[in-house]
TrEMBL record:
Protein name: Amino acid transporter
Gene3D superfamilies assigned: Amino acid/polyamine transporter I
Keyword Transmembrane: yes
Species lineage: Bacteria, Bacillati, Actinomycetota, Actinomycetes, Kitasatosporales
GO molecular function: transmembrane transporter activity
Region feature Disordered, mapped onto this chain: 471-495
Amino acid sequence: MTDATPTLRRGTLGTADIAFFVVSAAAPLTVMAGVAPLALLVGGIGAPAAYLAAGVTLAVFAVGFTTMSRHVRHGGGFYAYITRGLGRPAGFGAALLALLGYLAMNIGVYGLLGSATHDTLQSLVGWNIPWPVLALVGVAVIWFGGYRSIDFGAKVLGVLLLAETAILVLLAVAVLAKGGAHGLSLGAFAPGRISAGGMPGVLAMAFAAFTGFESTVIYRREAKDPARTIPRATYIAVAFLGLFYAFIVWTIIQAYGDKEVVAAAAKDPTGLFFSAIGSYVGPWAADAMHVLIVTSLLASLLAFHNATNRYGLAMAEEGVLPAALGRIHPRHRSPYVAGVAQTVLAVVVVVAFAAAGADPYTQLLLWVNTPGMLALVALQLLAAVAVPLYFRRVAHGEGVLRTVVAPAVATLLLGAALWLVVANIGLLTGASDAVNLTLILLVPCAFAAGLGYALRVRASRPGVYARFAAEPASESAPDAEADAETDAAAPVATS
């Protein structure tokens, strides 16, 4: 690489910027207003505890994950970590899983964006614009956001995230100030609630609500101090999401009452939050929440779009994907060709679903998002397994709690979480058994395709195979000074 070749904008993102990307990807307002009512229907008033349990599980995972982030300075995120611990074939499989996960999580949401924007415009101003038109406008907006510099995207996400968080906080404050429907109660956190009959399904929904939190490591090349910024942003994101989700769901229970909230959710699940804020704050707040649902989705889409672009960039630089996807814009320092490719794919998928007369929510969103979410949970599980195997082979000064105990516990918890999601997939999709089986099988098939691709690359392009997920020399030195580690160039498993 010559000095004239543009690179990503280094030293741009601080802890708050990266945390904004991660939390925005989770779309807190959309998760609360759109999914929490279903969680209450399935699991009753114990739903807040499920979000806390998911947050604790992912916090345990983050211990080993962020410890490894101080040693692995590659920009490929999950697949680089899995390669270090489980070998290059598994790393290739993880790379295809990551592409499936991030692309699916991004593109599927355009269905919800089109549907939510259509309903909002029709409700507020009487416009009846077809959802595919609105979804395609969203595709263009997100392309532009990803095309611009990463600091531009961070500022946009910061504003949008603060707005969607503020409306939920406003609702919570109003409910607490008025003492709820019948006085405040902590019954939702009673020990017996977590073992209620429908809680496995709620736990599956809760884990889905954190999807994308691990994308902090993808931004290490643009972070101001990766050795410190990445772990901090990861912990902040997990802690915020876990506590915030649990608090807001508990608040909505107080708004209706422990005995009444499930019946209210059954009567009007999509209107549960809107009715509450209209009653406790005022009709104007319900209208504002409708608008902020749309901006919440735009923020989520931009966050996933940027993360996907950086996965594509890293794989293109290694020769696994076409080299053109590795081009960086000379002015904005963004992986703009990867962004164009992702945008074209989004247009194709949206147009195909629209032409088939598919429902934007039950089919485009749920059918496309579900395998993406499964892929990302599977990647978390593989990364948890990889952590102790990696630290067995390298010289390091980390403690056994971070490198063995926490990853082992995370492996067990994430394995249980993946099983819960698969076992309760019908709650997430509402689809037939045949459709659900197809969505599930896409994940192992993508991983198997990656394994097969690894064998072909090893035979036909051994140089590319040998360099896969290797430490970039241009990035190892600065980080090594920052955290004073002794293993700046850790070996890669080759099995």
